[in-house]
Amino acid sequence: MENYKKAYLAGGCFWGMEDLFRVRPGVIDTEVGYLGGENQNPTYRNHPGHAEGIEITYDANVTSYKEILDYFFRIHNPTTVDRQGNDIGSSYRSALFIQNEQEKADALAIIKIVDDSERWPGKIVTTLEPFTTFWPAEEEHQDYLLKKPNGYTCHFERFGTFLQL
User: Fold this and answer.
1) How far does the chain reach from its first CA to its final CA, in angstroms?
2) How far apart are CA 144 and CA 18, in angstroms?
3) Rounded to an integer, what distance in angstroms lies between the CA atom of residue 103 and that of residue 17?
4) Which residues pair with residue 136 across a beta bridge?
């Protein structure tokens, strides 16, 4: 467990992000919740300014923060402001919640690779926001697509890795 780390990402509806990340090599656990907003103890019905995000616990011996970001930029559209699929609003923004300078450097490097690839039709609008607090979502939202396999998601893998470009 000494090599376990956490990453905090937001890229639209948290259900779809969690469902895809949970099965990635090196991912130990995922939890959906709220990040970067105005109130404490946010809920699904009351989370002003918060993004729907995920907390990813991963084994740094198996995967890296850069590899997590590489996948993140392949499963949601990072070129749309406050929107993913049919979901519109700041809750659905593309954001990375940065915990330290190394994460910031890695995020900027991956964003440059993704932008330079021109695989997306526009420039990356993903924000880098300071990590403060992760507020877990209500239990009914945890593992939602396992509970409701036909539930809504707009997340899917679009490209091969950016890291080998």
Assistant:
1) 32
2) 9
3) 20
4) 33
Cα angle 123-55-74, degrees, rounded to a multiple of 5: 30
The low-confidence residues of the chain, meaning pLDDT below 50, are none
- pLDDT tens for each residue of 72-88: 999 999 999 999 988 99
Among residues 9, 13, 56, 113, the one annotated as catalytic is: 13
For the whole prediction, is pTM greater than 0.85?
A: yes
Q: Is 154 annotated in the active site?
A: no
What are 39's two structure tokens? 């109130």
Angle between helices 65-75 and 14-21 (to 10 degrees): 130
Integer Cα distance of 1 and 127 in angstroms? 30
DSSP-H helix ranges across 6-75: 14-21, 65-75
Closest CA to 133 of 6, 2, 1: 6
3-state secondary structure of 63: coil
CA contacts within 13 A on the Cβ side of 159: 17
